Amino acid sequence: MKYLELAQTFEKLEKTASYLEKNKIIADLLKKTPPQEIGKVVLLMLGRAWPTYISKETGVAHQQLKKAVAMASGYETTEVDKLMTKIGDLGEVAEQLITKRKQVSLFAKPLTVDEVFNAIKRLPEITGAKSTDRKLELVAGLLTSAQPVEAKFIVRTVLGDLRIGVAEGRLRDAIATAFGVNPEEVEHAYMLASDYSVVAEAVARSGAAGLKRVTVTIGHPVSPMLAQRAESPEEILKRMNGKAAFEIKLDGIRIQAHKNDSDVKLFTRRMEDYTNMFPDLVKPVHDAITTPRAIVDGELVAINPESGRPMPFQEVLKRRRKYGISKAVKEIPVVLYLFDVLLVGDKVLMSKPYTERRKTLEKIVKPNDHVQIVEQRILGSPSEIREFAEYAVKIGHEGLLAKDLKSPYRAGKREFMWLKLKPTLDTVDLVVVGALYGKGKRAGVYGSYILAARDATTNTYKTITKCGTGYSDEDLEQLTQLFKPLQIPKPHPDVEIEIEADAYFKPEVVFEVGFEEIQRSPEEKHTSGMGLRFPRFIRIREDKRPEEATTITEIEQLYREQQQKKGKRV
Ligand code: AMP
After folding, report:
1. Which of 144, 159, 174 is where one domain is finished?
2. Would residue 221 be called left, alpha or beta, if left means φ above 0 and alpha means ψ between -120 and 50 degrees?
3. Is 249 designated active site?
4. Is residue 207 part of a domain?
5. In this structure, what DSSP letter does residue 221 have?
6. Which atom, in ligand 1's list, is nearest to the CA of 248?
7. 130-136: long-range contacts at Cβ-Cβ below 8 A with a sequence spacing of 24 or more?
8. Centroid of ligand 1 to alpha carbon of 250 (angstroms)
9. Are residues 439 and 559 in the same domain?
10. Of 136, 159, 182, which residue constitutes the final position of a domain?
11. 145 CB contacts (<8 Å, ≥6 apart)?
12. Are residues 410 and 535 located together in one domain of the fold?
């Protein structure tokens, strides 16, 4: 196929914003593209010569590209610069200059899609000595043979900015229109292959049957299965027929690990290749998976080396960027917690039920310091689920993920077969009125704070909960420093407190606290007459004065709403 045909299609696509028209333009082109070339056409239409999950760039700087345009058109680079300031798009500059090209090469053959694709694909591979010059030559060579409109799109592709408004979602519909297949099936095939060039070629060669044959390949990320949110254990049991698998929900980053003999790749949820970001995981993953080939799914968590508790992940990524990977590797150990397996050997397991996949996972994985299997329990009673959720939060995790025992692995889908249960449903702002010393590792700092809500009628603060989770070690240290000067020998006159504390404070600091449930007559004796289940420190509300803390009346209102949600009579 001639590249000119593709460039002219790009031109049409650039000129129209209409979805339907764009769909028709792409479908018409795909219909007349020979199947062996359709993959290349699709990738070029997405502005690249490799699938989107491979993060590569051509590595040709703007300045070099200007030189290539000058060489191919016979104009000076100063001329290119002049036009560039006027037009602002090097693609269009190339188009104009090539139109008035000074010397016309007599031997120029029409460019083919193959040639352009292969040249662009080669660009990132050119490295080492004189690579800048060699890249320049390659691009200038293409431009010398190019017609003006071809030059425009070659330049933009090399720059990685095609600007024709074709995203992957549009390809799904255009492929469906071109070959008369169901868009959902096209999308499903894409979820497995993560590459529209593979999907388009399969349909172009064998229609709907070809589409069904598209499957997972080691080394190509699969769209991860996602979870819906559930409000309560009761809801989960109802949706999952009375019994489900509950796994700890870890707060890290989703990682899909592919092992192909000695080769290990780690992909994120957005299907980016993060293998280089976590070089310390490659060997442990390789060793933990005892079969030569497999794809497994999990969550990567960073562990605070001092406390042994998980660390907020954003922090970890930030540190890796700031201090470099080798330092981070030493200071912040990471652990990949696996919870699913998609492929073993040449068998795709995604259509198998959850229980079978979990069994296989346990069979093929030999845990080590950096690779573990997520803790799981099969439960059928709300109280057991709550207890497990409480335990998950206590050891520093987010909550639970419930999984339907019979569910297949539905790539890219957010459905009700996976349900997340985060104990924290709501937050309140409470005044800190006292504290208890920490024990064990937390000795020497306050480990738990006594919190109160404001009674607007008496203008006093009445206790509602003790809160001993949600703090990092750093938080506990800093909070202890913050509260020392506020300490008073006995409860402040504005505070109504009956439980014994190690320290009492002036009611000045406000904490935002998450919780699962408000309770009437809690076990602990609180002067507000209410309590919080699973309270969790979120942050200090520096912007709030104690007079602005949540009031008892507001908490009573929240309680009523909660009971209504549960369908109980108040
Ligand atoms: P969310 O990001 O809140 O929609 O929650 C879903 C995410 O939780 C998944 O994409 C995973 O990254 C993460 N996750 C943590 N633990 C698990 C688990 N045991 N099973 C599945 N996903 C988990």
Report:
1. 159
2. beta
3. yes
4. no
5. -
6. 19
7. 131/59, 132/61, 132/64, 135/58, 135/59, 135/60, 135/64, 136/60, 136/64, 136/67, 136/68, 136/71
8. 7
9. yes
10. 159
11. 105, 108, 109, 110, 111
12. no
Task: Read off the CATH number of the domain in which 274 is found.
Answer: 3.30.470.30
Domain that holds residue 112: 47-159
Q: Are residues 542 and 457 in the same domain?
A: yes
Per-residue DSSP letters for 237-258? HHHTTT-EEEEEE--SEEEEEE
Residue with tokens 């040449």: 346
Q: At 502, which CATH number? A: 2.40.50.140
Q: Based on the domain organization, do 414 and 435 belong to the same domain?
A: no
Residue 186 beta carbon below 6 angstroms from any ligand 1 atom: no
How many C-beta atoms surround the C-beta of residue 366 within 10 A? 12
Match 């259509």 to its residue by tokens: 351
Question: How many Cβ atoms are within 10 Å of 283's Cβ, its own excluded?
Answer: 12
Q: Could you tell me if residue 105 is inside a domain?
A: yes
Structural domain total, the chain: 3
Cα distances (Å, whole numbers) of residue 194 to 19, 108, 352: 23, 37, 21
Q: Which position has the token pair 């109504």? A: 496
CB neighbours of residue 474 within 10 Å: 11
Whether 135 is in a domain gets the answer yes
Question: Which of 425, 514, 530 lies closest to 470, judged by CA?
Answer: 514
Same domain, 399 and 448: no
pLDDT along the chain (570 residues), means of 10: 98 93 96 97 96 88 95 95 95 96 73 97 94 95 95 97 88 96 94 94 97 95 90 92 96 93 94 89 97 97 82 71 77 91 95 97 97 97 90 85 96 90 79 93 91 93 94 91 94 94 95 89 87 88 87 90 63
CB of residue 249 inside a 6 A radius of ligand 1: yes
Q: Are strands 226-229 and 414-421 parallel, antiparallel or unpaired?
A: parallel
Mind giving me the DSSP string for 423-455? S--EEEEEEEEEEEE--GGGTTSEEEEEEEEEE
Q: What is the rounded CA–CA span in Å between residue 457 and residue 463?
A: 15
Please indicate whether residue 247, judged by its CB atom, sits closer than 6 Å to ligand 1.
Answer: yes
**The pTM is what?**
0.69
| Both structure tokens of 46 | 């997405």
Cα–Cα distance measured from residue 390 to residue 396, given in angstroms and rounded to the nearest whole number: 10
CB 57 within 8 A of CB 127: no
- Which amino acid is located at 97 in the chain? L
Q: Nearest Cα to 513, choosing from 451, 560, 556?
A: 451
Neighbours of 345 (CB within 10 A): 12
Q: How far is the CA of 418 from the centre of ligand 1 (A)?
A: 9
Q: Are residues 513 and 434 in the same domain?
A: yes
Q: Which of 22, 67, 152, 249 is catalytic?
A: 249
454 and 487 belong to one structural domain = yes
On whether residue 213 sits in a domain, the answer given is no
Q: Are 214 and 349 in contact (CB under 8 A)?
A: no
| 3-state SS class at 398 | coil
Q: Are residues 390 and 521 in the same domain?
A: no
